[in-house]
UniProtKB/TrEMBL annotation, chains A, B, C, D, E, F:
Transmembrane segments: none annotated. It comes from Phenylobacterium montanum. Pfam families: Creatininase. InterPro entries: Creatininase-like_sf, Creatininase/forma_Hydrolase. GO terms for biological process: riboflavin biosynthetic process. This is Creatininase family protein. It comes from the Bacteria. Belongs to the creatininase superfamily. Signal peptide: none annotated.
Length: 249, 249, 249, 249, 249, 249
């Protein structure tokens, strides 16, 4: 069930049977010579939208801009500062919590988001902790590649050249979903270098075409489809487990 | 051209021929018994995506959560506080400005966003004004219904019962784009009441089913298609005029 | 009744008979070759102070600095950033609300304030909306020229050359109240140009003497007096209507 | 010279001969049974406006709301939080600094403002210090009672019962300026108690009628006039000395 | 009792007998040619740690970075902006308040902290005052040199050349506690100049070696020991008095 | 070399030979029945202070309060909100960067700090990235247990019952450094449970004595000494490698 294509009374009815909502969250940032700028928000959106076709989960609109300051050296990247990101996640959570959602599950598509999303969770929990009260909501962050079996599948599909940015697995997922937007390029070197992540100027100097450790040329729509299928199943199961969790005390 | 389905080098190439980018911006909020929660961000997205098929404009990802605090009494609404909204718009603009975009055009789908978006523009301009320097970017806000001829068409289509929230014109646009998600309901009264907008509890007490002054039952996908067609044409022309503007001094 | 010339126990007594307070709010900014820098806060102050002589309304101190970033290219302008303005309005409202005022009426003298004041209202309401509770206070914004009949009178007085900044109507009001500070200048052109409002450098380049579309040379103290008289009557009536409003739910 | 009754070109001309501006700053807060709520902003305004009649100083609009959280237990008090106060002072200073003012002199009327104004100065200076550059402006804070000879005069006028809040000296100044608003009351006890300042509830419990250590019944308009006369002279001299200061390095 | 060397259950037990905690607070900043950079946080730490050996007081970890923007021209200085300092003090107080501490006593070692700490107290109290409720905690700030008899002793020890920064009294205290880190230098002039405090560049130009009005060469470990002994006694007594205070109302 | 026991001119001299500084950073939070509240800031402080005895590294004062909101259910815990933590790290970095430090190495003692510290780094880098300039400083975060060989040693020392909070390895380090503060308790169960980390109330319900997965009874001062020795060596090597890094581009 897609929240944005529902009416408020449909959501009211959903809340009768579940207090859990899934928020796809990602980033809009360069993904090398052939990766789509939207890759990191498209992947969790693709997976979550696919999952809700077979599972009774509610999927919120996609949080499509995240923490991508290091990619700002490449045109098309849009980034929030961590402080803005924390404030925005807070408002999303407060909004959903006001409606009675008690479990908010963020399906993440960007490694660079993880630290700030966790900080945002702590910021929200801290308000309750300072007042010695329970939090209104429970928050969970899951990267799509950490869903059951997904990373293992990607490693089997791409034993060499997977890397950590503009990976063939994420490129493959967008190829499967947007076949009319598959791009080609010569990669030089075939497998991109690795290194630390700092500010945008440093990043572009280290990673001239934007890739980190990856060979996106390995991606195919078929492999993408396999990943989506497995991730969607994993998501349904993981959301169910989260929804079933009881709170202590 | 859709930014999120492009690569960074395609955007780099676009910047050679234009420094203007269009950002669809809206809100995810209740739209009465039959309106989609996504209506206000879907409408500018639908129009902008349609426009870029025939015009050489670049469309950024949709800014899908806006200022909708007054709708929080209805499940599914997600709102930023104005202070968060201002910070987030600031980061979008700083990101796009860093790439060399000089004209940023926000195509808005939610009347409740207008004040805060204008405040955000002033916040950005103020940084330049305090330092007595030119702003790096020029910002423009346009509601889709204010594009050339669009509001007049809507008034002709819906001479009675257009109202101001969950209007038949916006419902019609989403019906045209998402025909499989057309909803039906009995409206009582047929035309919703009007009144002031305050906090969410007050809003729900005044407008029990979420509509303001409107009869969404008048919407049809065909009327939506007419509106999209006209608005897309208007958008291409308006963006061209904005891009052609010279700056004084 | 002027709050700042009252004692706390006089305010306590006033609260027994009314929960409504009027806050004149404006801006301190350039007003062309002959307009006073204080024009935009002086006008609502003049009107509200005049009104309280004949009506039992309580007038707070004047909020004299608003959002005037675009005028910072002209000496003497003082501006808050929107984020600061929102925070300050919040503290005023929280202060007055703590005393039991339930209706706070901002009589505004500066068009450039409107967006940010509305954003400030939304910021305040949002705190209640996220918590699903009623707001402690109801907020109203009214520009003095929108009081009953005032704008129509100004159009009759100045059918040509009224414009939108450094208008003869606002100049006339300050002339009536501060006759010893009437200034003269040659205007070239007689009626100033119009155009968009952006950062201060852009503004000064477009509007070299600070006026927008106006011919302040038309102002006279007599016309100012007529405007004040009418606006004061309108204010008393409008405040009474606001005070009498009941809240739904 | 009063900034708000001047035009921008008059300020431009003033800047040719001086880079110094005086900002009266105070608070709107309860002042005991007979003191005006505006006392703390009226006093520096009265003194500065009087001074500019005989000295060539430029007086900005009055910053009339300060840090008065402890007085919020009494109706009519309006307070900024320190964080808001710091932000607002910052914007005033940035505005004036943008015009070329290099020396900004705050004439303060409220002891409770001192800490936050100094913190605001440090916040402004810190921006320069982190960047190892000179500050654009030099800031000075002076309480009106610390002007040459003023406190000594007050001690001679009111050797007993001066106290620290709702003092006879400040009451006297407002009596001199607003003789039609002189209030009377029985004071019990004649001299109010003293004690620490904490939150508003604590304050009202300790100081039931709002006074701290004072007997405002001693105030007379004549004594107020003497204080204003002396303070105005002191202000002119102190501003001249400040304007003449050279900066090291 | 040192909080950081205790377990949580030991603190739980302490709370059974006392609701008061002492927080040493200072700054890490240059202290002239021979003063340790840590002087201003070491002094209150030394005194508080010494005091808790003989008195049953609980000493929190030292808040070691304060408001030292004016010293940033000298290497090794670390400063918070006032706005950050206020936020951090707020979080410390909210944390301690959550555990049931009702009296929080800040023993301060840096004059430059005073304004911002007081602003931080007001920020915390304001939250209660806006809501017309009692503050959960009572806050007290005391400079170590204002403890009973301490300043008088320092004046007797150093009748000439005490000054206000890098004073022989504070140097002496660190000499007593860290005898292996006593430094020597030629002072030129022997007694440093005095002057106003502004941004870092101004400060370094006025006070080339970092001292203000002082001759640190007068310090000896013995004198430091006398000061610590007296201050520790004063602290125990002052904390006891603070703990014994009852709240009105 | 300890910064706080040095003079500014000693730091100036150090900057001639190195631009790198080490900041021990941790948290003050409950550590189970026997762990010291200061454990997480004492460990990196102990290691860094030990390391600087044999290596020419500069150690800043310890950043002793971090992100510990989840431990606020236990007395003695002090936590910053992530937003405050980010602001404070920013000011530390800006201060050290102003002196010419180009490499800032945070030696961390608290897993719960990691996300927020990384968000703080991104916040700092983002300022440079938005402006398309190089960052003034390079930032590095290292947990002490991730120094070469340290975690492996801990696993050898405590093959069972190491856990993740109030671990025997961190307890052992504080035992080695503060032998007079070794505490004893019966642990029930001997090895604590594990589970997710949320707000403080949830945490205390899940982990009644504060431990997570650990048996601190295994700690001995000797094992602590071994860990410190190895970590100190690892720190010197790691700092040297960091200092030697060149920046690309």
């Amino acid at each position: 069930m897609l929240l944005h294509l529902s009416t408020w009374s449909e959501i009211e009815a959903f809340l009768e049977r579940s207090k859990t909502v899934v928020v796809p969250i990602g980033s809009n940032e360069q993904h090398g010579p052939t990766g789509l700028l939207g890759t990191d928000w498209l992947c969790p959106e693709i997976i979550a939208h696919h999952a809700q076709k077979s599972g009774d989960i509610l999927v919120a609109p996609t949080f499509n801009i995240g923490m991508a300051q290091h990619h700002l050296g490449f045109p098309g990247t849009i980034s929030l500062r961590p402080s803005t990101f924390i404030a925005a996640i807070g408002d999303w959570v407060r909004s959903l919590g006001a409606h009675g959602f008690e479990k908010i599950y963020f399906l993440n598509g960007h490694g660079g988001n993880v630290a700030t999303i966790e900080a945002a969770f702590s910021e929200l929990y801290a308000a309750a902790s300072f007042e010695k009260r329970k939090s209104r909501v429970v928050l969970k962050l899951k990267n799509w590649w950490d869903l059951a079996g997904v990373n293992a599948l990607a490693m089997r599909q791409f034993p060499v050249g997977h890397g950590s940015h503009a990976t063939p697995s994420e490129i493959a997922i967008t190829q499967w979903a947007y076949p009319e937007h598959i791009k080609a390029a010569n990669y030089a070197p075939q497998i991109a270098p690795t290194g630390p992540i700092r500010e945008a100027a440093d990043f572009r100097a280290r990673f001239p075409d934007g890739r980190m450790g990856s060979d996106p040329g390995l991606a195919t729509p078929e492999k993408g489809g396999e990943l989506v299928e497995l991730a969607a199943k994993g998501l349904i199961a993981d959301v169910a487990a989260f929804a079933a969790e009881t709170r202590p005390g």
